[in-house]
């Protein structure tokens, strides 16, 4: 049985790549263009995993993670950050907000699936 994954990125190309990779592995993917869009699409629904970019318009990934962690439904949902940011201060900010893991773009589909399998055994 596949996972239900929310993929948040302002780049449609990146959402398509993440969605394609996860769907091919048997997962259901909900796509959102930024943090506000993600919260709107998620509502009170549960997902098994959230993958988010950091740098997005309207609501960035750090703000989204904080917002999700404040909601009881998403308090323990694994959240992976998928971003071009490899800076340690950004990683620390992401961890402090509640991110579970960090993948630097560009990513390989195999690497993404390995990390997904690790955080959602």
TrEMBL record:
Keyword line: Phosphoprotein
Q: Which InterPro entries match?
A: Bact_response_regulator (IPR050595), CheY-like_superfamily (IPR011006), Sig_transdc_resp-reg_receiver (IPR001789)
Q: Which biological process terms from the Gene Ontology are attached to this UniProt entry?
A: phosphorelay signal transduction system
Modified-residue entries (4-aspartylphosphate), positions: 53
Which is an annotated Pfam family here?
A: Response_reg
- Which residue ranges traverse the bilayer? none
Top-rank lineage group of the source organism: Bacteria
Q: Which residues form the Response regulatory domain?
A: 4-120
Indicate what this protein is called per its UniProt record: Response regulator
Q: Which organism is it from?
A: Terasakiella brassicae
> Which gene carries the instructions for this protein?
cheY34H-1
């Amino acid at each position: 049985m596949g996972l239900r994954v929310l993929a948040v990125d302002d780049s449609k190309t990146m959402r398509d790549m993440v969605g394609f990779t996860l769907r091919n592995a048997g997962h259901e993917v909900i796509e959102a263009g930024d943090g506000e869009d993600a919260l709107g699409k998620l509502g009170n629904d549960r997902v098994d995993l959230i993958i988010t970019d950091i740098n997005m318009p309207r609501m960035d990934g750090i703000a989204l993670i904080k917002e999700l962690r404040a909601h009881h439904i998403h308090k323990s949902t694994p959240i992976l950050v998928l971003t071009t940011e490899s800076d340690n201060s950004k990683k620390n900010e992401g961890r402090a907000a509640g991110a579970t893991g960090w993948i630097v773009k560009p990513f390989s589909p195999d690497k993404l699936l390995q990390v997904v399998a690790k955080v959602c055994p």
